[in-house]
TrEMBL record:
Protein name as catalogued: RING-type E3 ubiquitin transferase
The RING-type domain, residue ranges: 71-112
GO molecular function terms listed in the Swiss-Prot or TrEMBL record: ubiquitin protein ligase activity; zinc ion binding
One GO BP: protein ubiquitination
Protein location: Membrane
Keyword Thylakoid tagged: no
Length: 125
């Protein structure tokens, strides 16, 4: 009756909560060199650390470079204690930001890679 037709062209499926929660989660900590202590020589290379969250893995720290220290969804920089999510493609976002995104579309907002890997078109099984 109505002329409105929902196009199936963009039917990218969102991820389920349990799928999102399988992705690695980290806690971000700022590089605690204060402005006074460290010269830009020491400090310039990375913005902080992120520590793998949950599980019984030993503390696993990764440096976060200045370039990667901003969430591309809300465009703010990570702060002490922020929860970050790493996608299989290696991109980082705030947990709450990317979770919301993934429920709508299970792809990385930056590189458009599907979080389930290559085979996603036919779903199945
Ligand atoms: Zn964010
Ligand atoms: Zn990506």
């Amino acid at each position: 009756m109505s002329g409105l037709r929902i196009s199936a062209a963009h039917s990218v499926e969102g991820a389920a909560k349990e799928d999102v929660e399988k992705l690695s989660k980290y806690i971000f900590q700022r590089n605690d060199c204060s402005e006074k202590k460290c010269t830009s020589e020491n400090q310039g290379t990375f913005a902080g650390f992120m520590t793998l969250c949950g599980g019984d893995a030993p503390t696993d720290e990764h440096r976060v470079s200045v370039d990667d220290s901003e969430c591309s969804i809300c465009l703010s920089t990570y702060d002490d204690g922020d929860e970050l999510r790493e996608l299989p493609c290696g991109h980082l976002f705030h947990c709450p930001c990317i979770d919301k995104w993934l429920y709508m579309s299970a792809t990385c907002p930056l590189c458009k890679r599907n979080i389930f890997g290559a085979s996603s078109c036919c779903g199945g099984v």
